[in-house]
Write the C-alpha cells for this entry.
Amino acid sequence: MKNKSTTEETEYKCPECGEMIVRRKGISKHTGKEYDFFACSDYPDCEKTFGVLDDDTPDFDGKLRSKAEESKYECPECGKPLVRRQGISKSTKKEYDFFACSGYPECKKTFDVLDDDTPDFDGKLRPKTEASKHKCPECGKLLVRKKGVSKKTGKEYDFFACSGYPDCEESFSVTDDDQPDFGIVDEENDTVEK
C-alpha cells in the first residue's frame, strides 16, 4: 500500500525563492516511519525542504539538521576524511557528538568521540560482549553478556544474548545471581515459561 503524500498550505514563504511553503508527510528511508516536513510549493523548480520545530514552525535555520564539521582524521575503512556531527540518541533523547565518514552513504563507518576529542577507532567506548559458559537453549551456541539501554526508561541494563545472532535472536534477562533467566521450569508439564 503506497502512502499518499498529503499537502497542507501554510502562511510561510520560502526564503530561497519567495513562493509559499507547504507542510507534507514523508517516509524515512532509514526507519520506514512517517514524518512531517515543510517544502517549497514551487517544487521541482525549488527543492528547499525544512524540518518541523517543536513549536510547529519550519526550521529555516537548520537547527534540526546536523552540521558536519571537518576534522583532520581519515576513515580507516576507505581513507576519506571523517567529519564530526551531532545526533540525538533514540533511547535517551540526548544530543551526542560522533565522527562519521564523509563518504556516506558508500561508507557508513561512525566512531564515538573520546574525552580528548579524537575518534574512538578502537571501540573503547562501546561495551564489549562478555563470553559466558551458558548455552542457548534454542540453538546450543554460547550466550554472551551484553549491555542495553531501555527504550522506555533510558536506563542501562545487562542481558544475555545468543552468539548465533542474527540466525538466533534469543535473549535472556540476568537473574540476581548473575545467571541467564531461562524462565520457570514446570517439571510436571515439562514446559518453560518466560
In short: The chain is about 0% helix and 40% strand. The chain has a mean pLDDT of 79. The CA atoms of residues 141 and 184 lie 21 Å apart. The longest strand covers residues 20-27.
